Amino acid sequence: MRQRTLGTLTTSALGLGCMGMSEFYGPGDDAESVATIRRALDLGVTFLDTADMYGPFTNEQLVGRAIAGRRDEVTLATKFGIQRDGNTRSINGHPDYVRAALDASLTRLGVDHIDLYYQHRVDDRVPIEDTWGALSEAVAAGKVRHLGISEASVETVRRAHAVHPVTAGQYEYSLWTRDPEDAILGLFRELGIGLVAYSPLGRGFLSGEITDPSQFDPSDFRRHNPRFQGENFQRNLDLVAEVRSLAEAKGVTPAQLALAWVLAQGDDIVPIPGTKRRTYLEQNVAALDVTLTPDDLAAIEKLAIGSDVAGSRYPADTMASLNR
Predict the structure, then answer these.
(1) Catalytically annotated residue among 54, 173, 198, 314
(2) Rounded to whole angstroms, how far apart are CA atoms 292 and 294?
(3) Which residues form the NADP-dependent oxidoreductase domain (predicted)?
(4) Are 79 and 117 in contact (CB under 8 A)?
(5) Taking 80 as the threshold, does the pLDDT of residue 94 lie above it?
(6) 54 flagged as catalytic
(7) Contact (CB, 8 A) for 292 and 260
(8) Residue 18 C-beta-side C-alpha neighbours within 13 Å
(9) pTM to 2 decimal places
(10) Which of 156, 205, 241, 310 has fewest C-beta within 10 Å?
């Protein structure tokens, strides 16, 4: 497995997003999920991503069981900052909460340190300097090796980085979500911060395997995502058909083409496609062997998928929680 460097952290060029194993994408199968994580490690995909709010809490426990006895092979990333009480969510960046959340995650994961600890969402009520002061203390105590941030504005990243170096930022980035190109990527390259690209397959849409909203389980959050609803769904389906056409011409799957595109955007970018099945994991890993020529990249760029995609990437209330 090729390696990439995120700031000062070296890890596998492709990661594995574990969220969907426990929630948001329909029913899970813990046995298959554990087998998928272990297969990922066998294939050299050692960068695993989870968060305390996935489940909530159960995804960290699942990851902890899967890596038991193989901790030294893993670059382990988790996140704090989104509190859940039933169906209610809130953002918390208070220093006391940072400390409590970190200790709880260490216990659930069954480890003595976390390789990359992200602030999942920014609490606008708490100065970022206070939150990152507590995170810096965690690094000094040896509980955390590197710090990250997610969905934060340029100004917030600069302020956090002034307290303690930001190793990586996790942002949605794919052929149909190119927001980081507006300013964040430039800032990251200025400061030496890596980009972890979540949902690099557009929440599965870019795989080309989603053809009708009825495919989604009632518990699947995509039923409520604007890009998967009504007229937006069909418009986006038409865009994916264009991706499929290019992929077929190259002899790869649409998902592999989409992942190869993200990988081609810079060696400081690590995509973390999520899956809960070994079959899809192996297909995703094969994207590392797909080389996109300048002509391929130009053809993809002509599709203008990022500007033509219909619908916002989250419902309005969730979009409002992002730090802009």
Answers:
(1) 54
(2) 7
(3) 14-304
(4) yes
(5) yes
(6) yes
(7) yes
(8) 36
(9) 0.96
(10) 241
